[in-house]
Design goal:
This protein is α/β, with parallel strands linked by helices. It contains 16 helices and 14 strands. The strands form two sheets. It has a twelve-stranded parallel beta sheet. Helix 1 packs across helix 3 and helix 9 runs parallel beside helix 10. The protein starts with 26 loop residues before the first helix and ends with a strand. The N terminus is likely disordered. This is F-box domain-containing protein. It comes from Meripilus lineatus. InterPro entries: F-box-like_dom_sf, LRR_dom_sf.
C-alpha cells in the first residue's frame, strides 16, 4: 500500500483509513451515559475512545456538578479553574456535602469549621458564569462560622436553585436566600431551623421570582419558616408546591401558602399523616403511637378536612400519598371543575397486600366523574419494591402482581384507559 492511503489529508474527519465511520452518539444519550456512569472513569474513557465527538460533548457534562467535601476539595476546585478557566464556565451546580465529608479520608473524623472554603469562593467571584444551583447536604449552619460562606456565595447572582437536605439552619440562611434576585426553586428537605420567633425579622427580605417550593420533613420551627415564606413569596410567582402536613401545627401556614398562590398554582404535591400501623407488633400487644419531636400524633382526618384548596382552581397536576381515607374525595371536591390533567397517587408496597377495594372505591369513582373531564392520566407509583422483593428472583412476576393489584383497586379509572402503574 502506498503512503497516500494513510495520508490524513485523504481521510475524512471521524473516519478510519478503511472509510468506515466512527459511531456518533446523540447528545441526549451522551447526557444519560455521563449521569449513569459518573465516577466510572474506565467506562467513560472507553466511550471517549470509540465514539466520535464524545470528548467535546461529554467533558462539560462531567464538570456540571462539583461536590465539595472539605476545605482541601474547595482549594482543588480553585486551582483547577485557575489552570483551565473554561471549566468554570461548565460548572452549573456546587454541592456542599458533609454527609460524605470523609469519602477521601475515612479515618478523618475531625471537621475543620472552615471546611467549606469561604475564601475560595470569594476568589472565584466572576469565574463561574453558568452557576445555577447551590446544594447543602447535612451541613450545620450557624451565624458565626458560615456567615462568610453565605456572603461569598451570594455574590453569584446567577443562582436560580437552592437545595437543603438534612441541614440545620439559623435565620442567617433565610437572609442568604433573599440575596438571589433570580431564585426560582427552593427545596428544604428534612432540615431543621433554630428559630424561635421571627418577630422583628427584617420584613424587606423577599423571594419575588420563586416558582417552585419544596418543604418536607418534620422539623422543629418549620411553622415559623413557612410563615416567613408566606411573607417573602410573591403570590403570583408560585407555580409548584411540595409540602407535607404531617402535623396539625402546619395546617394554618400551609393554607396561607395555598391561598397566596391562588389560581396561579399549577402543581401540588401534598403529604398527609399515615394511618397508624405497627407491623412488628405481636398479636395482642398494644404499641403506642410514635411521637415526632414531642408532639402528639396528628389526626389524619382532621388535617385533611382542614386543608383548603378552593383558591387553587388552576391546578394541572396533583400528587397524593396513600389516599385510603374518604377525606381525599373531599379534597377533589374542592378542585372540581379545575383543569387537572394528571393525578399521581403514591402507595407503599409494604401496605399494598392489606389494601382493600372499598378503601379506594369512592376515590376511584370520583376520578371518572364528568367534572374531571380534563383528566388525562392517573399515575400510581408503588414505592419500596427493592425492600419488599428479591430483585434477583421473579422480578417481572412481582411487578405484574403489583400492577394487577392496583388495577383491582381502581377499576373505573382502569376501564377509562387512563391508569398507569410504575414501581420504584
Amino acid at each position: 500500500m502506498g503512503y497516500h492511503e494513510y495520508d490524513p489529508r485523504h481521510i475524512q474527519y471521524g473516519q478510519s483509513h478503511s472509510k468506515e465511520p466512527i459511531p456518533t452518539l446523540p447528545y441526549d444519550l451522551i447526557v444519560d451515559i455521563v449521569h449513569h456512569f459518573k465516577g466510572d472513569l474506565e467506562t467513560l474513557t472507553t466511550c471517549a475512545l470509540v465514539c466520535h465527538q464524545w470528548y467535546g460533548a461529554a467533558r462539560p457534562l462531567m464538570y456540571e456538578t462539583v461536590t465539595i467535601y472539605n476545605a482541601t476539595r474547595a482549594q482543588e476546585l480553585y486551582e483547577m479553574i485557575g489552570a483551565a478557566p473554561i471549566i468554570g464556565q461548565w460548572i452549573k451546580e456546587i454541592s456542599f456535602d458533609l454527609l460524605n465529608h470523609d469519602i477521601e479520608d475515612p479515618e478523618n473524623v475531625d471537621i475543620d469549621p472552615n471546611w467549606l472554603g469561604a475564601d475560595v469562593f470569594m476568589r472565584l467571584e466572576g469565574r463561574l458564569p453558568s452557576l445555577r444551583c447551590i446544594s447543602f447536604i447535612a451541613t450545620h449552619h450557624d451565624d458565626i462560622c458560615h456567615a462568610a460562606l453565605f456572603d461569598a456565595l451570594s455574590r453569584f447572582r446567577t443562582v436560580r436553585h437552592v437545595s437543603s437536605y438534612l441541614c440545620h439552619h439559623t435565620a442567617t440562611f433565610l437572609t442568604f436566600l433573599s440575596r438571589f434576585p433570580l431564585l426560582e426553586t427552593l427545596s428544604l428537605k428534612r432540615s431543621t431551623f433554630s428559630i424561635v420567633d421571627l418577630t422583628g425579622f427584617p420584613p424587606n427580605l423577599s423571594l419575588p421570582h420563586l416558582s417552585d417550593l419544596h418543604v418536607t420533613g418534620c422539623s422543629n420551627n418549620q411553622h415559623h419558616v413557612r410563615a416567613w415564606l408566606n411573607s417573602a413569596i410573591t403570590a403570583s410567582s408560585l407555580r409548584s408546591l411540595t409540602v407535607d402536613v404531617r402535623h396539625e401545627y402546619y395546617v394554618e401556614e400551609t393554607n396561607e401558602l395555598l391561598k397566596n398562590a391562588g389560581s396561579n398554582l399549577q402543581f401540588l404535591d401534598i403529604k398527609f399523616p399515615l394511618k397508624p400501623e405497627y407491623p412488628n407488633a405481636s398479636v395482642g400487644m398494644s404499641c403506642p403511637p410514635r411521637r415526632d419531636n414531642g408532639w402528639p400524633p396528628a389526626s389524619r382526618e382532621v388535617v385533611m378536612e382542614r386543608i383548603d384548596l378552593r383558591h387553587n382552581t388552576g391546578l394541572r397536576g396533583l400528587t397524593i400519598y396513600t389516599p385510603d381515607s374518604p377525606e381525599f374525595v373531599g379534597l377533589l371536591d374542592q378542585v372540581s371543575g379545575s383543569r387537572i390533567r394528571t393525578v399521581d397517587i403514591v402507595l407503599q408496597l409494604s401496605r399494598l397486600p392489606r389494601m382493600k377495594r372499598e378503601d379506594y372505591e369512592a376515590l376511584d369513582e370520583r376520578l371518572v366523574r364528568s367534572d374531571f373531564r380534563h383528566l388525562e392520566e392517573v399515575h400510581v407509583v408503588c414505592e419500596g419494591l427493592a425492600e419488599q422483593y428479591d430483585l434477583s428472583q421473579n422480578i417481572w412476576e412481582s411487578i405484574d402482581s403489583v400492577t394487577c393489584k392496583v388495577h383491582q383497586l381502581f377499576p373505573s379509572v382502569s376501564n377509562r384507559g387512563i391508569l398507569r402503574v410504575t414501581t420504584g
